[in-house]
Every structure is written in C-alpha cells, then in structure tokens.
C-alpha cells in the first residue's frame, strides 16, 4: 500500500494523525456538498434559475475531483503516520473513490449526450 501511495517512510504515530483526520473530514464534507448540490439544490432550483442547470455538470465534476483529492491525501497521511485505523479508512476511501468515479463517468456521459 505504501508503494501505491508513493510513501517512502513513516512518521512516528500521532505526529500527523489530527491532520489525517482533518483531511478525511474535508473529503467527506466535499462529497456531502457535491451530493447536496447535485441531487438536491440543482434539481429543485435549476428550473427556476436557468444557469444552475448549465453549471450542474461542471460543478459536480469539480467537486468530485476535490473530494477525491482530499480522500487520497488523507489516506496518505493515515498510512504515513501508521494510524491504527489505516486499513479501515483505506477500505472506506476506496468505496468513496469508486462511487466518485462512477459519478464522474455518468456526468461525462451526460455532458457528451447534450
């Protein structure tokens, strides 16, 4: 896993753990914002405000990218610090990354179909 994440060494446990947990929180927050905008705000307000419909896919793609980057950064931090929950978070982040990838593919398909 360390090779996949391009980590050379480790940091003593506890040195960066808070940062990893903060990054994890940011990735979850970015995913939550993306889902809220994509599945709640844009469908409800989109017909009322025409520009939201036009910006829906680019905003969703941008937020998916941000959420994915935060997930990878937090996963690297968990592994760098030998956090005791690193495997559990890796599994969680993998599921999130698969779902984000699926969402990006769907957004790109919708963009092409226009």
Descriptive account of the structure:
This protein is mostly helical. It has one domain (17-113). The protein has 3 helices and no strands. The chain has helices at residues 17-45, 50-80, 86-113. It is elongated, with a radius of gyration of 17 Å. The model has no long low-confidence stretch (mean pLDDT 77).
Explain briefly what this protein structure is.
This protein has helices spanning 17-45, 50-80, 86-113. It is mainly α and 114 residues long.
Notable features of this structure?
114 residues, mainly alpha
Question: Which descriptor suits the 3D outline?
Answer: elongated
Mean pLDDT: 77
- Helix- and strand-based class? mainly alpha
How many structural domains? 1
DSSP strand content: under 5%
Task: Quote the distance from N terminus to C terminus.
Answer: 40 Å
Quaternary state of the chains: single chain
Write the layout of secondary structure elements.
Layout: H1 17-45, H2 50-80, H3 86-113
């Amino acid at each position: 896993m360390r090779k996949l994440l391009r980590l050379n060494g480790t940091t003593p446990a506890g040195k960066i753990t808070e940062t990893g947990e903060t990054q994890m929180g940011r990735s979850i927050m970015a995913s939550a914002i993306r889902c809220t905008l994509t599945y709640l705000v844009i469908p409800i307000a989109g017909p009322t405000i025409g520009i939201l419909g036009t910006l829906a896919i680019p905003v969703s793609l941008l937020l998916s990218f941000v959420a994915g980057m935060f997930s990878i950064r937090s996963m690297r931090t968990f592994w760098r610090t030998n956090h005791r929950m690193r495997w559990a978070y890796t599994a969680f982040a993998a599921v999130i990354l698969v779902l984000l990838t699926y969402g990006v593919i769907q957004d790109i398909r919708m963009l092409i179909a226009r």
